[in-house]
Design goal:
Keywords: Kinase, Membrane, Phosphoprotein, Transferase, Transmembrane, Transmembrane helix, Two-component regulatory system. It comes from Ramlibacter montanisoli. GO terms for molecular function: phosphorelay sensor kinase activity. It is an enzyme of class 2 (transferase). It catalyses: ATP + protein L-histidine = ADP + protein N-phospho-L-histidine. This protein has 4 domains: 208 residues, no CATH class; 58 residues; 150 residues, 2-Layer Sandwich (Heat Shock Protein 90), CATH 3.30.565; 119 residues, Rossmann fold, CATH 3.40.50. Helix 3 runs parallel beside helix 7, helix 7 packs antiparallel against helix 8 and helix 8 runs antiparallel to helix 9. A 5-stranded mixed β-sheet has the order 2-4-5-7-6. A 5-stranded parallel β-sheet has the order 9-8-10-11-12, sandwiched between helices. The chain contains 20 helices and 12 strands. With 589 residues, it is α/β, with parallel strands linked by helices.
């Protein structure tokens, strides 16, 4: 339907432009035709004056001149009054044809006083004049056809009684053969004009599309510059804090002090992780690769996963958190995107609340369910509220609450809600708090998807397992290996495939699990996994990568996207070891 409407609009534009160009063309050609007619009429005096005298010649010439001179102002007044319309074009063509036909009246008027030779010359000139009229009247082929018939008939009348039947038949035959050619020529000229208009319209559309594309590209470049500037600035804040906190932790000997610093380090790390995730989400949105898999979702189960640990987090800050769920229900949504959105709403409420209560409500609204998160935080001004869902926007409330972030959370949530075809509403009053509501359609009957579960018992899962870690970044490799060792695993770590194969040969046993970075100094993690499996048989493996498009590459291996939280890594371990068998423990030299 949209294509048909666009095609109809384009056709209308072409027709309108064709009429405008036709009017402009016929006005220009009639001016040239008037000058030609006046010059040609004066020249014909050489033939007419000796034959009919000055009086008859001047009478005819004055009529021709009057028609040619008067018609041009009339044409311009017509265009000014009615515009360049189809009706205006038709009237101009009719008047132009009528005034041009007057010139051909000289043939029957003066033919009896002319010799056959003079009449032949006059006929040739007149027929040439009729042919020349194609340039004027081709924009109206039907008018030209009538004009042609009238002119040829007038010329033919001039020969009647001036020659024999045979010659009259030959003249009639020549006219009947030539007239269709001229009419066809007029139609060809009109078609060429239409083609030229269509080509011009297409070129104009292409130019406009190119201009819009260039403008969009420039806006994208500016957005990316703002993106990099905002990201680099806001990422430096928690990194700076992390540097100070780790230095205090290193120098302090007070266990209580170290424990407090450790908690702050964890919170700062979570802040950095959240920023990275927002950047990755924004990159996926920008590339158009973020997708939603809408399905029936048990809202109770998903809420339980989304609020896990949030009440304790609020209590540690002196805030209250409660849930007001009126009834159990199943909604139509993407469970992964929905949980991320709810966590983002809760995190925002936590960041912007200095006191009071945070409430998560679920309320039935006809054939939909409203899920809202409200707080009693600093709130937002009306101007800030209108821009809250714009990328990288951080209003006055962020300054008042000293909230960390890069201004992407609500922009990403808006895009996720659009992907799920859910409604998102934001309400806020300065000093009173903010309420964000997500309106989700109720799902048809079906099996609801379970939200991601957070599993513990890390020591039982990893105790005695040999985990191969292939990571070319030393800091990441050492930190990951230390976490695995702390969880009870044995670790074979290396920066390259060759080093890893050497370490595994000294281990005298195949690895139970392999964690490999995707981009290595030599080759990829996928190639490394294939090499290890070729030597030791099938080994559970996960690819760990920080590349935004890694999920779109179809690696045929499960992927963990950096930064990886301990809970996410534990989920990966759980997937690799669905049972609880424990191998013989020991240390790897």
């Amino acid at each position: 339907m949209a294509d048909q409407e666009q095609s109809a609009a384009t056709g209308s534009d072409v027709s309108t432009e064709l009429v405008k160009r036709s009017v402009a063309m016929i006005l220009a050609q009639t001016r040239a035709g008037a000058a030609t007619a006046l010059l040609m009429g004066a020249t014909l005096g050489v033939i007419f004056v000796p034959a009919v005298g000055w009086a008859a010649f001047l009478a005819w010439y004055l009529v021709v001149a009057l028609g040619m001179v008067v018609r041009q102002p009339y044409f311009h007044r017509l265009v000014q009054k009615h515009g360049a319309t189809e009706h205006t074009l038709h009237r101009i063509a009719v008047v132009a044809a009528l005034t041009s036909w007057i010139t051909t009246l000289s043939v029957p008027l003066f033919s009896r006083a002319l010799s056959v030779a003079d009449l032949g010359v006059l006929t040739i000139i007149t027929v040439g004049w009729v042919c020349l009229a194609v340039a004027v009247l081709a924009v109206q082929p039907r008018v030209y056809a009538l004009y042609l018939a009238a002119c040829l008939s007038t010329v033919y009348l001039g020969w009647v009684g001036h020659t024999g039947l045979r010659e009259l038949l030959l003249i009639a035959a020549a006219m009947l053969l030539g007239a269709p050619m001229l009419i066809r020529l007029a139609r060809i000229v009109q078609a060429q004009l239409r083609d030229a208009v269509e080509a011009a319209q297409q070129n104009a559309v292409l130019v406009q599309q190119l201009r819009e594309s260039l403008q969009k590209q420039q806006e994208t470049q500016r957005a990316r510059s703002r993106f990099l500037g905002a990201a680099s600035h806001d990422m430096r804040q928690p990194v700076q804090a992390l540097m100070f906190l780790t230095d205090i932790f290193r120098r302090s000997s007070d266990p209580g002090r170290r424990d407090a610093m450790a908690q702050q380090i964890v919170r700062t790390g979570e802040s950095i992780d959240g920023m990275f995730r927002h950047l990755v989400d924004f990159a996926q949105i920008d590339a158009g690769t973020m997708k939603a898999v809408v399905q029936p979702v048990d809202l109770d189960r998903l809420l339980a996963a989304a609020v896990s640990g949030f009440a304790e987090k609020c209590a540690a800050r002196g805030l209250r958190f409660r849930m007001d769920v009126q009834e159990s229900c199943t909604v139509s949504a993407d469970p992964v995107l929905l949980e991320r959105m709810l966590r983002n709403f809760l995190d925002n409420a936590f960041k912007y609340s200095l006191r009071g209560e945070i409430v998560l409500r679920v309320k039935r609204e006809g054939d939909a369910v409203g899920v809202s998160v409200s707080d009693q935080g600093v709130g937002m001004e009306r101007e800030d509220l209108e821009q809250a869902c714009n990328a990288f926007f951080r209003g006055r409330s962020a300054t008042l609450a000293e909230a960390e972030g890069i201004g992407l959370g609500l922009a990403i949530s808006r895009h996720m809600s659009d992907l799920m075809q859910a409604g998102l509403r934001l309400e806020s009053e300065p000093g009173q708090g903010t309420k964000v509501t997500l309106r989700l359609p109720l799902a048809a009957e079906g099996l609801a998807a379970e939200p991601p579960r957070r599993q513990r018992h890390c020591e039982a899962l990893l105790h005695g397992r040999l985990v191969a870690v292939l990571e070319n970044d030393r800091l990441t490799r050492d930190a990951l290996s230390a976490w695995l060792v702390e969880a009870g695993a044995r670790v074979a770590q290396a920066a390259s495939l060759a080093q890893l194969q050497d370490v595994l040969r000294h281990a005298d046993r195949p690895p139970d699990l392999m964690l490999a970075d995707f981009r290595l100094a030599e080759g990829t993690g996928v190639e490394a996994v294939d090499a290890v499996r070729a030597e030791y048989g099938w080994v559970p493996a996960w690819i760990i990568s920080g590349e935004p498009d890694i999920l779109e590459r179809g690696l045929n291996l499960p992927v963990l996207q950096k930064p990886v939280t301990p809970d996410r890594l534990l989920d990966a371990v759980r997937a690799a070891f669905p049972g609880n068998d424990v191998t013989q423990s020991g240390d790897l030299a």
